[in-house]
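[job 0412] stage=complex_fold ligand=manganese (II) ion status=START
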Amino acid sequence: MRKIALEEHFTTPELAKNYVARPTQSDALFADVERRLADFDELRLEMMDKTGIEMMVLSVTTPGVQGVSDSREAIRLARSANDFLAREVQKRPDRYAGFAHLAMQDAEVAATELERSVRELGFRGALINGQTNGHYLDEDQYVPFWERVQELDVPIYLHPGKMADHPAMFAHRPELGGPIWGWTAETAAHALRLVFGGTLTRFPKVRVILGHMGETLPFLLWRLDSRREFDLGEKLAPDARPSAIIRRSIAITTSGVCDPVALAAAIQALGEDNVMFSVDYPYEDPQIAADFIESAPIGEKVRAKVCHGNAERLLRL
Ligand code: MN
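[job 0412] stage=complex_fold status=DONE, emitting structure tokens
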């Protein structure tokens, strides 16, 4: 079945040296990742052809400019990365689309760059690599950003970035602070800030995308409702429950979780219109991801939605 994949990463020559996270201890694996991040030709296209991935929506790998300490430099590098990606997409508009890369150090500038990326460069939304200098997207400073997102009617992919600090629970266990667990905890908490902090209620048309099968949230919906009502000591209106806000405002991808049990649960929890195929290239193996989605025990109508239909609708591809 033809597939669209939307958590697929690249880097630019400017960002490659200092702003690519290293989620492996293996030099050989990381060298291969670096080679693939910089490639838009044979390596990527041959792999796409081999695995039936018709289109990739490309994004700058984590942390990108969100890891740049000088915000003026971050703004410059973000603009430059978007122009760089637009040139690559233009060469193969049938195979590549883009998510904007934004310097979230400055919400107003990020909103303006998102608008330029969507209206002038034809990008499909933006991918944000987690917190920025300890700041999260439910903060008041980001209200103008979300206003622009809603106005432009494009999704925001909330992708893991590194944690702002190192909690004691990860002390002496550095492997738990990365993609094995810490990135999931960080990204799920960030998404829950948007749910509980009111952002997704104030901007009901905004759509947020989470990778990694929803960063565990599909598994927790019942508990989020139950404990929130216990916390408040009152029943919530059905559409004010955390689960309702998540089902309405959040869609997820299968990136990096090639598990048919988790897929079935996610589809049941969020609905068949809210789950989309992705790989997380080049950190994950596209062949494993493709084999997983082709063979998962779901109906063909649902498989078509997950493989391409939902992404086509949400990203207007
Ligand atoms: Mn990723």
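The mean pLDDT is 97.
[job 0412] exit 0
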